[in-house]
């Protein structure tokens, strides 16, 4: 009898150890990351009753929802959001400080790279992740598997495709609106794969695309094309079919383009999200067929939200209006600043996402005290209408601003790329310049309408549920990585969401 119990105990211990080892090394066949550009968190509730059962509603009713996911840095813009989702860190570390920013005094777009060429088009300007300083989920997955895992990224915008994929992605594809086809760059390959060429050939036959042309981003068709390309990538690269876990990154940008043009209310936005729902349903069905339901881990989130249109808000007696920096305030502030220092040369080079970039070359040439110029700008900006706060990044520690705003601003600050002075407007006010739609919207601020985003997890070892606990956009990457039992991205500052990990 004693021998029996000893043998039984040993068997139980062995089984438990085996189960633990199996669990630790177990991974899904595929990870799918979906970013919906400019999607406010409250859209999940706004459109819930109009969603079909097998699209976004399926993710909500069968997945896990983090209902209080916040962006914890400034500014809240596309390039930063996509990067922070996949790196688990902020601009202070990953270096993507806006859709455009300055590097060594030279203005560049987030993915601009003069050392690569476009592939799939004759477009001269090419893009790559060269400006990205940190690794992503996909980078870590490839490192963990000795680069056997495949990572593919698809979007309408180059930055929304390139930055999620990371520096070691197998491929990133985005739309060349002029030629109406998906392209890439020599960072990834010298020639498009045959399956991508075949899909581009099908796009050439699309009569609706031919009709809307370069304005495709203003129509739900853009989302249909992104979904089609994602499915083509899934099948063409046999993602989720190999021995190692693969990753597919998808970003839907038509929602952002439509929002900028027509805002957060009305038929255009309604159609955009209801058609997106259909695209999500179609994608999920393909994943079920290709990889198998329960064999893939999926998350859906947004890079930022959006304010309600200022005219819509003011018509309903809210405190809101357009803040015309480019047309009015910058001219006045810049002129007064130059007059104050006795020069006609500009001392402000640019304003990007509520951050002022000094014209340091002129300041140095004129022999001015740079700190005196900084102090004068802060003083002048604070006198402008509807400005709540302004401070010099060099004096952030002593700036009279709420601590949480200071923290968000500093998390978004990179000493070489983020400008010199930051300011915040009253709620309901946003920057409005040349090209801004009077009936549209924008984003970039700390306010909940810009910073509160959806976050849904679904699929492999994800139990249905929800939490109202505050989590952050930077928590997504460490959560996925811990779920996969791989190392977090190399500049990750987020924390794993325990509700998703504890399965």
Describe it.
This protein has about 500 residues and is α/β, with parallel strands linked by helices. The chain folds into two domains: about 30-310 and about 445-500, Alkaline Phosphatase, subunit A, CATH 3.40.720; about 320-430, Gyrase A, domain 2 (2-Layer Sandwich). The protein is built from 20 helices and 21 strands. A ten-stranded mixed β-sheet has the order 6-9-8-7-10-1-11-19-2-20, sandwiched between helices. Helix 4 (about 80-85) packs parallel to helix 7 and helix 8 (about 195-205) packs antiparallel against helix 10. The protein is globular.
Can I get a quick summary?
With 503 residues, this protein is α/β, with parallel strands linked by helices. Helices cover 39% and strands 18% of the residues.
Strand order of the largest sheet: 6-9-8-7-10-1-11-19-2-20
Describe the main β-sheet briefly.
Answer: 10 strands, mixed
Mean pLDDT: 94
- Count of β-strands: 21
Tell me the name of the CATH homologous superfamily of the largest domain: Alkaline Phosphatase, subunit A
Distance between the termini: 37 Å
The helicity comes to 25-40%
Binned strand content? 15-25%
CATH architecture level-2 label of the largest domain: 3-Layer(aba) Sandwich
List keywords for this structure.
503 residues; Alkaline Phosphatase, subunit A; 2 domains; single chain; Gyrase A, domain 2
Task: Draw up the topology in text.
Elements: H1 2-25, E1 30-36, H2 43-46, H3 56-62, E2 64-66, E3 69-70, H4 78-87, H5 91-94, E4 100-103, E5 106-109, E6 118-119, H6 137-144, E7 151-155, H7 158-165, E8 171-176, E9 181-185, H8 194-204, H9 207-212, H10 221-236, E10 246-252, H11 254-262, H12 267-290, E11 296-301, H13 310-315, E12 321-323, H14 325-340, E13 348-352, E14 355-358, H15 360-365, H16 370-382, E15 387-392, H17 403-411, E16 421-425, E17 429-431, H18 448-451, E18 452-453, E19 455-459, E20 465-467, E21 471-472, H19 476-484, H20 498-501
Parallel strand pairs: 1-10, 1-11, 2-20, 3-21, 7-8, 7-10, 12-17
Antiparallel strand pairs: 2-19, 3-18, 4-5, 6-9, 8-9, 11-19, 13-14, 14-16, 15-16
